What does this fold into?
Amino acid sequence: MNTAITSPTSRRQFLAGAGAVGAAALMSGCVTSSSSGGGSQSGGGTLSLQSNLSSPQAKSAMEKLVAAFDKRGGAKAALNTVASETFRTQLPTYLTSANPPDLLTWYPGSVADTYAKKNLLLDISDIWTKGDLAGYSDAQKKLCTDSAGAKVFVPASYYWWGVFYKKSNFAKWGVQEPKTWDEFLALCETLKSKGVAPIGLGAGSGTAWVASAWFDYLNIRINGAQYHRDLLAGRHSFDDPQVHKVFDKWAEVLPYFDPNGTALAFQDATTAMLSNHTGMMLIGTFFADAAPKDQLDDIDFFQFPIIDPAVPIAEEGPTDGYFASAHTRHAAEVKDLMSWLATAEAQELYIKGSSGTSLPTNPKAQDSGTPLVKKGRALIESAADVTQFFNRDSSDALQPTADNALTKFLAKPKEINSILTAWQRDAQKIWSQ
It folds into this structure.
């Protein structure tokens, strides 16, 4: 199942369905665990919603969202919030347990299809034929359909990745946004000469997956989006010469990374950037839910630099939302909640409580309208292709192989040959299952 928008036409259809006016919910973030609900039979028929949205603003927004649903009358929901990395590692256990959560936040595309193939996700095809979901784009419908043809997902938002920085810092340092790789290297050298660690990473303390963004972007800039998707599907090898080119290019910029890059979680790396200890950071907009709201106006971003102008420009534009357990005992109530979460009302309610830095999937929803959001929308709309993210374009099972390989590369880049050989061996075990 293709997890990305693979042509300019389908991409435009996706964006129209994702909200030409749009706005939304930020379905990512991980800080601390907390709980306000439980299993699928809790509350005498109350359905459980297991959420990985644990950044303070995101968690608060989800609580308000559930409260609004409960006030509608009828079905009731109880929210259980879990730190995102814990959520990811425990998700297979959640879905296979005897008493699974009824509804869960997560991702569509290949990652959802992996669970659907194991008969772990509820078929919700019927709710896609009515209400707001009937008006979603064909591309979104495809993204939320498993390989057997069943709809298994409801999208709530999409967002973009970029190289984020503080506008006041760039002005103070007298630097501008780069467009090409050479300009990017020159910017890094300038910042380093000023005593600033040019690039923050945030691939430590449970968020090693952040490093995959560097692999994704370098691969789609050098080899193209289709090669990238084929690689993650096992149609190419991680020790392929084309992949070696990715790491050759990455090695050029390694001297400019924060030495603490694999020691700090992305939330701490965000703090380091906002505290002027680092100059910029490749990250998704979800990082803003871990940032003080009073600093959001000072945040800007630029497109990941162009390396080969001959390669069609692709961007990472992940979609987030919900899928339900196939073993829920509250199927009707779950479908009611999922249908409501797809509405403009629900998505606009969420954005008021979150950082408001991502875009809606409902074409009628209003976004925050900030300059940052407008710039992010333009980035995605102008792309020739849109990918999701490493685990979303492959599977949750493959992500740890990337975490392992990329952190080893960051620590010992000269050992890249053995690292890629080991990565291919580990990945092959996953693909063979």
Remarks:
- Confidence is low (pLDDT under 50) at residues 1-44.
- The domain at 8-158+318-387 is CATH 3.40.190.10 (D-Maltodextrin-Binding Protein; domain 2).
- The CA atoms of residues 156 and 284 lie 16 Å apart.
